[in-house]
Structures are given as C-alpha cells and as structure tokens.
Design goal:
Length: 239
C-alpha cells in the first residue's frame, strides 16, 4: 500500500504522484504555460479523456511530449490522431477503448466509458474515456456514466465535473450520489471565479453529503492524499 498525492491544476487538469511515478490527466487550454510545465515535470504517464481543447491543448502538449521522448500516452484514438498530426511521435501511444486494464507509467489504470455527454443534438459526440487510477481515483472526463467498478468496491476519490455546458448541477449531484465515492473533489470548473467555485462546491455538497460522499473544495495548487488500492480508506491532506 502506498500514498497517492493529487494536485489540482487548471480546470480538469490534475496530476497524481506515487513512489517516483507521476501521471498527468487532461492538460487543456485553461492551463498557463507555467502550469503545464509544472504538471509535466517528472511525468511518467499522460492520460487524456477526449479531444476537446479544454482537456488537451494539442500544440502545447506536443511541445512537452517532444521534451519527454517515450512518455506513455493513453487516450482515445481521436486524441492520438490529433497529437500525431501535430507532430508527436506515436511510438508510446496506447488507445483507450473504455474497456482496458493495464499497467502504464508506474500506475494501474482501468478504463470506463466511450462517449462524451450530449451537449446538443447538433453537436457531434466525441469519444470520451474515464480512468480509475490505482483503484483509488476516478477521473470521468466529460461524462456522467456510472462505472461498473463503483459497484464492486467504494472508490476513495471521485473527480467530479462541477461546471459544464453539458450537464445541470442536479445531474452532477445525482452522479456523485450514484458513484458513492468516499470523497469527491471538484474539477471542470475553469470558467468559475474563486468565490463562484466555492459556492458551487457548497451547493453540490448539500446533496452529496446526504449520500455519505464528502465534496471538498480545492483550488489550483492544492493537494490531497489517498491510499492507493481499491476499497481502502482515504486520508485528507489539504495544501
């Protein structure tokens, strides 16, 4: 058993570190160059849920991949295609299908999903794959689909989208309640101001807490810790 350290960056971008391994998830265009540099420093794995620019800023990610040759990348095929077209070396690419279980970059990854949440009938759906990392942290990307593994054992940490163009806050609350994680941490909140983000957290927590999930407010630069391994109790260590 070991401890994962999660760090929140801009919007849906988070990093997870354990025993010298570091996973970067969804480095999108809300992040500054300094935030991307910080996220990629020491990275051993890049996970991307889908191709929308707020989850992968293709040109800037390709620049950082060039500086870290051989860095494993796990993402749906449209993301891999976009990165390769922009000049990235595909040698370390692995397609995320939504059904895979694998060890990459020092982490155990279990995939879930396959489709982005509906924004509007006139907007085509993208591939979207969420990731359960080390059995401890679930990043859903842009979907509110309940993963089967949520029924197998209680997930210690759910990263919960809180401000989206594709879901009402009511749906987010129901998603958090259905996943029934021990804790939920807000992501996908880039458009919100600091007070707005804190307000949204408080509103969602009024429902989440009734289902024994603690929704904890955090801001870019904050960290939390969780014991890796499915079904283990988690601990909280605010920055």
């Amino acid at each position: 058993m070991s401890t994962l350290t999660l760090t929140k960056h801009a919007h849906a971008l988070v990093t997870l570190e354990r025993d010298g391994a570091k996973a970067v998830v969804d480095p999108g265009n809300f992040a500054s160059d300094a935030e991307l540099d910080e996220a990629f420093a020491g990275a051993t794995l890049l996970l991307i849920t889908h191709v929308h620019p707020d989850h992968v800023d293709v040109s800037r990610v390709v620049e950082r991949l060039a500086a870290r040759p051989g860095l494993p990348v796990l993402a749906p095929q449209p993301v891999l295609d976009a990165l390769e077209e922009a000049g990235a070396d595909p040698a370390a690419f692995t397609e995320a299908t939504g059904e895979g279980r694998r060890e990459l970059g020092g982490f155990g990854i279990r995939e879930h999903g396959g489709q982005h949440a509906l924004i509007h009938l006139l907007i085509p759906l993208e591939r979207n794959v969420g990731y359960l990392i080390d059995g401890a942290v679930f990043h859903p990307g842009d979907a509110l689909s309940i993963p089967p593994f949520a029924q197998e054992a209680r997930i210690p940490v759910l990263l919960a989208p809180t401000f989206t163009p594709w879901a009402r806050l009511q749906e987010v609350m129901d998603f958090i309640a259905a996943v029934n994680a021990e804790r939920a941490l807000p992501i996908h909140d880039g458009p919100l101001t600091g007070p707005g983000s804190e307000f949204a957290t408080g509103v969602v927590d009024k429902v989440a807490s009734r289902y024994a999930t603690r929704l904890e407010h955090w801001v870019p630069g904050d960290t939390r810790t969780v014991e890796s391994g499915r079904g283990q109790r988690s601990s909280n260590s605010p920055a």
